[in-house]
């Protein structure tokens, strides 16, 4: 198509879309992101409006230190914050590390117990309200633990091609350098939309979040695999095996986890590009087709695009060779949604690892629910980094790294967390609804070391010599892993003489 034709088509399409698409009209821009306003940096807005250029771009040498007169600092701009607002628990001992709910403070102050000071400077309060443990860290945080969180809300979203077909946003080492072993993608497919037939060098593990898709895959033995995957189900596509994903009429959203930290959605092999990047004479010879059979192949990659509805009857899309189809323990999907969770006081957990889903050789996952006030106990994983995704609610994680550093991060739905191998951590529900999150390990079996169980199975004398804990505490240590523990729903109760649990 000529450029002019393209342009005319685009104009016509835009016209048609604005006429048919019932999107609300954009509101006038309102600068209300919870940011502070001046004076700041010696500028006192609003600046006077000039009708013509005036003044100069630079000052002169009379302003150099030593030349310039010095006014009395007492008469200068004040950095005192008048009437700072504080929230429940903010005055308590910083070592308690209470969860501070900054939502009621406009603006919140980075003070915890005796740590910190009021903040008169430039900032956007909404970030601080979402990240109270970065803004006013627990007094126990120390050292130089790297950043270990990435909200998908900060990812650059890639739109599908065609009209409203879907999108994908990703977390990888480009945005979270510490996450070297795994990367994640949050992908949306509109009704009947496809993720184009493709393959990649990483292994892919996926959890359906919403809706339903059909997945189709062919392996190197010439065996095919087709299945329908529902919310809560999982698939695993080994590196190099070509596959496609198509949404049914309700559309879909799913989470992809790859075993390469630098995986990028923009770096996959695509069937459209494979055809565009080979000589047509070779395609003709390879597929025994006349050259003009390739006249209508896409002129650009499809990526995520709208498709024709898949037949409900899965048998209609089940093509097999003499090698047959992949079945039984080789299956590339697991209908995890139908597995009942293991329930404990404070929440529930279900595990999916190669013991029950053998094809996903090194992917071990736990889907955990933690009730308000409760925690996923302090633990670590012996040999694998952990990739987290928060599906619902709010929670926080403190990561302890050898020998003497720790840092606390706050998470909300859509957030990715990362915990290096062997680093101690917990996940505490800091919200008012159930917290649901996913732990993914690169391990042949899901396992962890529970601090409470470790100490319970260590001779009392040894524990006492090390930690000087009262006998009553040591005697009460659980010999079985609690996994999750209940807690006081009031996370600042300790500040008023209450209890943490
Ligand atoms: C596809 O067909 C094969 C037989 O060729 C069968 O074993 C397999 O179960 C079928 N798969 C589905 C999803 O119907
Ligand atoms: C599903 O499709 C298969 C293969 O085309 C056909 O044999 C079968 O009768 C269909 N089943 C239903 C319920 O329509
Ligand atoms: C939580 O406990 C603190 C300290 O006792 C108390 O001041 C606060 O009102 C409590 N919050 C709620 C929601 O009960």
Characteristics:
single chain, 501 residues, Jelly Rolls, eleven-stranded antiparallel beta sheet, seven-stranded antiparallel beta sheet, 8 helices, binds 2-acetamido-2-deoxy-beta-D-glucopyranose
Task: Summarize the entry for a quick read.
The chain has 501 residues and is α+β, with helices and mostly antiparallel strands.
Ligand names: 2-acetamido-2-deoxy-beta-D-glucopyranose
Distance N terminus to C terminus? 68 Å
- Described by the principal axes of the CA atoms, the overall outline is flat
CATH superfamily of the largest domain: Jelly Rolls
**Poorly predicted runs of 5 or more residues:** 11-20
**What is the strand content?**
25-35%
Kindly state the number of beta strands: 26
**What is the CATH fold-level name of the largest domain?**
Jelly Rolls
CATH architecture name of the largest domain: Sandwich
Q: How many structural domains?
A: 3
DSSP helix count?
A: 8
User: What does the main sheet amount to?
Assistant: 11 strands, antiparallel
Give Rg in angstroms. Answer: 28 Å
- The chain-level structural class is alpha+beta
Mean pLDDT over the residues: 94
Helical proportion, percent range:
10-25%
- Level-1 CATH class name of the largest domain: Mainly Beta
């Amino acid at each position: 198509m000529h450029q002019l034709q393209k342009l005319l088509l685009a104009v016509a399409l835009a016209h048609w879309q604005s006429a048919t698409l019932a999107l609300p009209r954009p509101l006038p821009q309102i600068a209300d992101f919870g940011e502070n306003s001046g004076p700041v940096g010696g500028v006192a807005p609003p600046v006077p409006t000039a009708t013509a250029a005036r003044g100069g771009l630079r000052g002169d040498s009379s302003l150099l230190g030593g030349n310039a007169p010095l006014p009395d600092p007492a008469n200068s701009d004040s950095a005192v914050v008048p009437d700072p607002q504080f929230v429940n628990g903010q005055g308590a001992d910083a070592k308690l590390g209470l969860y501070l709910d900054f939502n009621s403070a406009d603006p919140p102050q980075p003070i915890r117990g005796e740590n910190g000071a009021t903040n008169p400077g430039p900032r956007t309060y909404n970030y601080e309200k979402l990240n109270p443990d970065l803004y006013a860290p627990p007094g126990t945080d120390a050292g130089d633990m790297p950043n270990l969180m990435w909200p998908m809300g900060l990812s650059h979203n890639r739109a599908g091609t065609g009209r409203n077909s879907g999108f994908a946003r990703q977390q990888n080492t480009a945005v979270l350098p510490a996450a070297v072993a795994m990367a994640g993608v949050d992908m949306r497919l509109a009704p009947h939309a496809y993720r184009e037939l493709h393959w990649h060098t990483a292994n892919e593990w996926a959890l359906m979040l919403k809706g339903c898709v059909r997945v189709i895959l062919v392996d190197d033995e010439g065996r095919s695999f087709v299945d329908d995957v529902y919310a809560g189900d999982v698939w695993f596509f080994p590196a190099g095996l070509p596959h496609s994903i198509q949404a049914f009429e309700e559309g879909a959203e799913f989470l992809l986890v790859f075993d390469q930290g630098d995986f990028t959605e923009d770096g996959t092999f695509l069937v459209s590009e494979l055809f565009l990047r080979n000589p047509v004479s070779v395609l003709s010879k390879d597929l025994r087709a006349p050259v003009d059979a390739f006249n209508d192949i896409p002129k650009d990659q499809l990526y995520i695009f709208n498709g024709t509805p898949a037949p409900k009857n899965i048998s209609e899309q089940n093509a097999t060779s003499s090698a047959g189809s992949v079945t039984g323990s080789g299956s590339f999907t697991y209908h995890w949604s139908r597995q009942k969770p293991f329930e404990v006081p404070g929440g529930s957990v279900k595990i999916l690892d190669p013991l029950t889903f053998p094809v996903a050789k090194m992917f071990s996952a736990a889907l955990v629910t933690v009730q308000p006030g409760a925690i996923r106990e302090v633990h670590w994983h012996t040999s694998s980094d952990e990739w987290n995704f928060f599906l619902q609610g709010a929670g926080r994680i403190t990561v302890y790294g050898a020998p003497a550093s720790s840092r606390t991060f706050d998470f909300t739905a859509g957030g990715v967390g990362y915990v290096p191998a062997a680093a101690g951590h917990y996940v505490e529900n800091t919200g008012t609804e159930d917290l649901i999150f996913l732990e993914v390990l690169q391990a042949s079996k899901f396992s962890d070391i529970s601090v409470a169980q470790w100490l319970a199975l260590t001779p009392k004398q040894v524990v006492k010599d090390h930690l000087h804990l009262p006998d009553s505490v040591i005697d009460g240590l659980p010999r079985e892993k609690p996994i999750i523990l209940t807690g006081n729903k009031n996370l600042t109760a300790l500040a008023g003489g209450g209890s943490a649990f």
